[in-house]
Amino acid sequence: MAENIAPRQILRDLLQGNAPLRPLFVPIVFALGARVENLSPRAFLANPTKISNALRQIRGPLRSDGVSCYFDALLEAEALGGTLEWASEHEGATLRWPTASERGQLPAGLASPEDAVKKGRIPVALEVIRRLKALLREDSLLMAGVSGPFTLAARLTGLLGQDPLTHEDLLDSALEIANSTILHVSKAFAEAGANLVFLREEILPILGEQTAEEWTSMLMPIFNVSRFYEALPVLQIASERAFAGNSEAALRLARDCVVCPTLEAVRSLSAEKHGDMHGAKLGVALPAAAFQQDQHSDASFDSLLGQVIGDLRPALVTTTDDVPPTTDLKRLAAISEVVRQS
Fold first, then answer.
1. Is 138 helix (H, G, I), strand (E, B) or coil?
2. Domain holding 43: CATH number?
3. pLDDT at residue 171 tops 80
4. Distance (Å, rounded) from C-alpha 235 to C-alpha 287?
5. Which of 217, 95, 92 is CA-nearest to residue 156?
6. Spatial separation of the C-alpha atoms in residues 111 and 132, rounded to whole Å
7. pLDDT per residue over 11-55, tens digit each?
8. How do strand 93-96 and strand 232-237 relate by DSSP bridges?
9. What gap in Å lies between CA 259 and CA 270, rounded to an integer?
10. Which segment of 143-157, 195-209, 293-307 scores lowest on mean pLDDT?
11. Residue ranges of the alpha helices (H) in 110-261?
12. Per the structure, how many domains does the chain have?
């Protein structure tokens, strides 16, 4: 039966350009590990032993095809020279630069992309991947996340919250540093044993034809180096508007990676766009609200998800972001069944 096919066989099919018999179910479940280990986020993110232990405990009840080895939005910016500041032990961190810079400009004294893979918490992430590769062997796919080039460039220049953001707002030098850093980090993750490398674009300008070609030229080396190590690149586009405005370019990219828009963005694809998807690999990212227990809405959402999977036959189903620590693991397991049986 299709639901019993091994995750690694599905991965091999996708890397070879073949349609899988069922989608991979690979939700991003990382921060939840801090709750499992009864640690603050700050302590959890720096401890490869605690991270590995927590992810192994979560893996059983989760019933997913992959383990989220490391997902943190500030990972690359910290490695390039930023400092994490924690308001309290139980809240998320903010990023500060040692030398103040004007909005839209790069901070001074950034590390080189080559050196960044040795700094910050990237060595911690690599150690988690290596440990889980040895412990889990063939049982689960190993996942790791990096920022997309526009997202990292916007974070480095203080423009991440700007809406709308245009391509002209971002310095070419910021995009170059961001893209080179992502290339080196993706290579390090894949070389360590990651099977899926998620490039997460939290923000993406609406691109014209020329800038869309530039975007493609930035991403292709990252896709190629991941695939060289037999890791599947997954491009997540978090904004429904950004995917709609760049759908033609995204669908072209989906021949070399899995492009993963939100569930609502997938549902809004026109019939004409569906016709353009021959040979493309699309995923679906579900909202965090789908994993909170609600007896009144579960059945209708599951029915909708089953219909989307039946119509689209996605390569994988994931989440729009790292699911919150309050996530209901039984609900996650229930959605896993919907994905496997649709």
1. coil
2. 3.20.20.210
3. yes
4. 17
5. 95
6. 29
7. 999 999 888 889 999 999 999 999 999 999 999 999 999 999 999
8. unpaired
9. 17
10. 293-307
11. 113-116, 122-136, 149-156, 172-192, 209-228, 240-245, 247-253
12. 1
- Edge-first strand order for the sheet with 232-237 is 66-70, 141-147, 196-201, 232-237, 258-260
- Amino acid in position 139: D
Helix (H, G, I), strand (E, B) or coil at 162: coil
Matching residue, tokens 């300008």 = 205
Tokens of 215: 């975007």
Q: Is the dihedral of CA 283, 143, 239, 317 positive or negative?
A: positive
Q: In this predicted model, what pLDDT tens digit does every residue of 266-279 receive, in sequence order? A: 888 755 555 555 55
Residue whose tokens read 């903010």: 94
Dig out the tokens for 187 from the structure.
């290579």
Of 182, 290, 186, which is closest to residue 232 (Cα–Cα)? Answer: 186
Residue 181 is which amino acid? Answer: T
Most confident by average pLDDT, 107-111, 195-199, 262-266: 195-199
